[in-house]
Specification:
With 208 residues, this protein is an alpha+beta fold. It has two domains: 82 residues, Glutaredoxin, CATH 3.40.30.10; 108 residues, Glutathione S-transferase Yfyf (Class Pi), Chain A, domain 2 (Up-down Bundle). Strands 2-1-3-4 form a four-stranded mixed beta sheet. Helix 1 packs parallel to helix 3, helix 4 runs antiparallel to helix 6 and helix 7 crosses helix 8. The two termini are 29 Å apart.
Amino acid sequence: MLELVIGSKRWSSWSLRPWLALRRTGAPFHERLIRLYQAEGQTRAQILPHSPSGRVPALKTGSLVIPESLAICESLAEAFPAAKLWPGDPDLRALGRAAASEMHAGFRALRLECPMDLALEPAPTELSGDALADITRVRELWSDLLGRSGGPFLLGDWSIADAFFAPVASRFRTYAIEAGSPELADYLDRLLNWPDFLEWEAAGRLET
């Protein structure tokens, strides 16, 4: 059986992404949760037996360990084609991969100033110019992809691209960041009310 090694659901945005994708496949898997922010060195020491990078997430399948969120999602898309984690349209698929890669490698100011914390009550926060620029870019990406695909998700049906932006949607809510348009507000609602996200969120709120 597949095993997905994840960090605390309250905080681990990187773990949430492949978890959502794996749930979408319908494949059975074992979930191994390792608490983040333990005493110095303990979290990494508990992760290392399962992930050579010392970080989560990691997908274990037989003797293979895939220790990186985007690589996990791409592997799932290949292993479970019926789940349609990427759309059939090659142009949308390419743009979706580009958007997921941009989220994976970029938006540093937004991630640092607005960390995912599913137990926080929504409240506005003062953001730097760099974080505001990141927010503008996120809105541009969402608007472009929704316009091209026709929605209701970024590439039409739910996809890996939506998995990668689900933690961003939670940040928008937690830090009272405006969606920017009614269409984007509707998209945020769809991400935050996706059944698998709601299940993850409920578990994260119970963590101490």
